Structure to design on (173 residues):
């Protein structure tokens, strides 16, 4: 099942999922674990901005999450968002990420009120190499639009970041 995230209810579990990536993976460039209260604040801030933050659940609870966030603080970027998805490590490769991301993109495209309406572009940053994430994004229609070399350093190695983008609507000017 996929539902809206509940900041106070889900904060601890989402922090637990995320902290695996903080401590053991390069999918995020954060290096300090995040507490449940801080995660709850992040969820609330995204929802206050009228953007989606969703979770996937099974019989045992939350197994992953996805959200859209403002791309940049400058006003002209208001119609562009970033998208992210994180899964419990036991759920990878089982279709949960595709289901979450597909639902997130459906909700992003449907945003019809608030400061980000209408959303014209979704950008996802991927620390490279990361073939599973690249495959997920491209299967959903994202196209690679940029590659930045050696812009992050984690686990004593330099990392590249690729930008993948999907756009909505015909308006180009």
């Amino acid at each position: 099942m996929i539902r809206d995230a509940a900041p106070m209810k889900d904060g601890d579990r989402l922090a637990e999922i995320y902290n695996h990536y903080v401590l053991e993976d390069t999918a995020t460039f954060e290096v300090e674990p995040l507490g449940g209260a801080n995660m709850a604040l992040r969820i609330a801030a995204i929802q206050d901005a009228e953007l989606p933050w969703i979770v996937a659940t099974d019989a045992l609870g939350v197994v992953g999450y996805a959200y859209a966030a403002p791309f940049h603080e400058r006003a002209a970027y208001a119609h562009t968002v970033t998208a992210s998805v994180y899964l419990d490590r036991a759920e990878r490769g089982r279709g949960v990420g595709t289901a979450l991301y597909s639902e997130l993109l459906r909700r992003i495209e449907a945003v019809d009120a608030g400061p980000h309406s209408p959303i014209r572009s979704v950008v996802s940053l991927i620390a490279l190499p990361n073939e599973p994430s690249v495959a997920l994004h491209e299967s959903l229609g994202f196209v690679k639009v940029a590659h930045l070399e050696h812009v992050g350093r984690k686990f004593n190695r330099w990392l590249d970041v690729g930008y993948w983008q999907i756009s909505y609507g015909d308006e180009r000017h």
